[in-house]
Write a structure and sequence with these properties.
NUDIX_hydrolase_dom (chains A, B); DNA-binding; 236 residues; NUDIX domain-containing protein (chains A, B); 9 strands; homodimer; Arc Repressor Mutant, subunit A; alpha+beta
Chain lengths: 236, 236
DNA sequence: ACAAAAGTGTTATGATTACACCCATGC
DNA sequence: GCATGGGTGTAATCATAACACTTTTGT
């Protein structure tokens, strides 16, 4: 199945797989973008991605395209975000695009191609096509999931102190989070577990921090029912 | 822009827009499906939908295709769900499909074509393609959103007693919900407002129920931070 | 000793569940 | 009067936020 047929009855559309890749760098959340050399949007920044091939799924396609920019193994999480279909989103010709959200742990510093760079999500440069608003969707999704799932495992290093984890949350959420409470919430939910090891205390002294890790490195819902919980089963 | 070009560099794919349309009927949540007459999957039940046209968005396409089955004005809510891209999801030839979730208020009983019928989501008949699992995704999305948004407006009649609303929640969530608490949660959040009117009391007597309506008929997040709320701004 | 950083104890707050009880209506 | 629902009052539970205080380290 290397070719796909089309007819007036079943029109066909070029399809792009795009990725919003996010990473916390220097206490700020950044998105990976590459600078377009050619028109349209020459000089503007675009999401990594490219055409879907005849024999791959969108997920596989995103992985493949991303491999041109970073080592894909470094992506700790990848999920489908949304599909954009405005007929004029690409001025050249109609293209449908499905965006994914990818997350990279903060301890990695993947080598990037010449044209590719990290940009703080709260100060994006001029973006190409509808990519700016797609980054917005990715951000929104990440923020929502940080609060009721364990996704933070995909942004944090493998092992970390609560203070470091707090930085990740603050960078991603964009507001202050108290380390004390963060620790307790995540421990009670069983999201974090102590490694038993300690971090060296800083240059200025201070009690050395205990190191933690995420109990799971697969996304899981940790706070299932925001409300309207099913009736409690226990009798008293 | 009535035609779309394709090349080995930019392969094109037929694209379907599908809809998971849900409604509470007789205290059970149902999905709208039509019975396929032709192969493949002759006799199996499929989601309404069809090919994306060259000049429409996916959202518009879903609306148009759905119009062939129900009066679209009856859909109180429609949102994009996900895009399926398995190369073999359609055995005839590769097709990408984007599914939407549509909700119809319980007081309506739209006329359906001959081949189309409602099926309880907890007892679906044999389904075509990957449509069964797409219904599953829709259900999951609905259940999650019932708990932190006001989506229930799209399943409930315009005006209702708390007991009726409770039925909607029970049918959609699949577990018991106490009317007392449901009322208080939704009132406190400002999701419901009293109409001032009363329902006639039933044949067997009983206190007449007060009628309520949803304050908004647009989806809104009503329980924003499951946890990790931003610090409170008020000083004490 | 003292400053710095981490972590624990403790209280307050707020939302929600559970459940007893009171209210309004038809027969 | 009494059965049938509907609605309110209230206590118990639980998760979280806030903050004081203790612990452990470097200088």
């Amino acid at each position: 199945m290397t070719s796909v047929w089309s007819s007036p009855e079943r029109p066909a559309f070029p399809h792009q797989a795009l990725a919003v890749v996010l990473q916390v760098r220097g206490a700020r959340l950044h998105a990976m973008l590459w600078r377009r050399a050619k028109e349209p949007f020459a000089g503007a920044w675009a999401l990594p991605g490219g055409p879907l091939r005849p024999d791959e799924t969108l997920g596989a396609s995103v992985g493949r395209q991303l491999a041109a920019k970073v080592e894909v193994a470094q992506l700790a999480h990848l999920e489908q975000l949304e599909t954009r279909s405005d007929p004029h989103r690409d001025p050249r010709s109609r293209t449908v695009a499905t965006a994914y959200l990818g997350l990279i742990p903060g301890d990695l510093d993947p080598a990037l191609p010449e044209d590719t760079a990290w940009h703080p999500v709260d100060a994006l440069p001029e973006t190409a096509f509808d990519h700016g608003s797609i980054v917005g969707s990715g951000l929104e999704r990440l923020r929502a999931k940080l609060s009721y799932t364990n996704v933070a495992f995909a942004l944090a290093p493998p092992t970390f102190s609560v203070a470091e984890l707090r930085e990740v949350y603050v960078a991603a959420l964009g507001y202050e989070v108290a380390a004390t409470n963060l620790q307790r919430v995540l421990l009670r939910r069983g999201v974090l577990e102590p490694t038993g090891e300690m971090a060296a205390s800083g240059r200025a002294g201070g009690r050395p921090a205990a190191l933690y890790r995420f109990a799971t490195t697969t996304i899981e819902v940790t706070d299932p029912f925001a409300v309207l919980k099913p009736p409690s089963t226990r009798r008293r």
